[in-house]
Amino acid sequence: MSASENSRGRTRPDEDDSSEDEETRTAVSQNEERYLSRVEEYANKASWPKEPLYQVGEVVYLAVSGQQQPAGPYVVVSSNFENGTYVIKRQSNDQRHPHAVPESSLRVRA
Q1: How far apart are CA 3 and CA 108, in angstroms?
Q2: How far apart are the C-alpha atoms of 72 and 101, rounded to whole Å?
Q3: What value does the mean pLDDT take over residues 25-38?
């Protein structure tokens, strides 16, 4: 057998015109294991769902424009993290707020 043939009589393709990178052209013997690095960032990274800032049952306050102090306390009933809104209700009488509140309008006590 020639040097370019393996034990089954197959020949390796010519490597001079190949556009593949060297890692894919390197033959891995049966005794070796392959190791690949992890990728930190992708060119077209998928947007993963993020955890909501406020959890269901958490006590929050509603920032109202024109008022120095936020209104409340309210309790978070549910969250829609796809559009960043929350359904809240008053803690004192369980009355729901008339519309979903954006995440940027909620506050917590420091």
Answers
A1: 73
A2: 13
A3: 52
| CA R_g for the chain | 30
**Burial group, residue 1, by CB count within 10 angstroms (0-12, 13-18, 19+):** exposed
- Encoding tokens for residue 82? 């796809």
Which two structure tokens, joined as six digits, stand for 97? 């707020």
Main-chain dihedrals φ then ψ at residue 61, nearest 5 degrees:
-125, 150
Count helices and strands (H / E) in the chain. Answer: 1, 5
Helix, strand and coil percent figures for the chain, each rounded to 5:
5, 25, 70
**Would you state the pLDDT for residue 83?**
84
For residue 31, the tally of other CB atoms under 10 A from its CB is: 5
Q: Which residues pair with 35 in a beta bridge?
A: none
pLDDT tens profile 40-67? 666 666 666 667 889 999 999 998 889 8
Q: To the nearest 10°, report the CA torsion of 65, 69, 71, 73.
A: 150
